[in-house]
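Hi there, hope your week has been kind to you so far. For a while now I've been wondering how a particular protein folds. I'm sending you its amino acid sequence along with the backbone structure tokens. Could you read through the record and tell me how the tokens relate to the sequence? Take your time with it, there's no hurry, and the full record follows here.
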Amino acid sequence: MNLTTSSGGDLFLKTASFEIRHNYDLVLNAVNIQGLNLKYAAHAFRDNYNIVLAAVAQNGWALEFASERLRDNYGIVMAAVLNCGSALLYASPRCNRDRNIVMTAMKSSGYALKYVNQIFLTDREIIMAAVKNDGDALEHVPENFLNDREIVMTAISNCSIMFEFGTIFPLWSADRDIAIIAVRNNAGFKYINKALYDNPDFLAEVFNIEYKTPELFHEIMERGRCLFKIPLPKAVITLLLRLLIEAAVCSD
């Protein structure tokens, strides 16, 4: 049988015969192409180290279909989280307490912080690795770390929408550097402290705009205030502000 012509797409084994699902070479070929074929392999192959290793290396989520014994195997779990950090969800409790495995998972997919053993939620290095890879991981960061400026800034640099995360913006809405990063990455102005977005120096830095006098900038901002009441891409806002500036200069 030519697996590449199977009617099941990449999941060749889903519609394969009993004989094919029990054929070592064909199953190994199938999981090398798409690891999730492990779900449809003969039960014995889910406990076969070589087949499972090939499957999770191709698609970490295939760990879900490995035997309990292999979900507790360091090499198998490490290969799975290298491919997809969130495969940590299916690791055995023992492997989920292994710091090397957990750190690898965070560097592969920071959002996997959602699945770590509780013992690592006090580990700043683990938390930092997670938000550095994926700012969305901030959603699962323990509250005490939300006071850590470096962690918050790292997360927002990778995902500005996290600035809108309910617990974050009251704490950091007045932090100039964090606010600049967030707004430049299209976070909503409504979450920025009013003292900042009324400051011409702050807005000029955000949008890289030069202006002659603070009075002129305030006039421009009043004319363009509506721009900050609706979500627009930074490039669009910048263009409109420049047009307002040109109009104001021409009217002088």
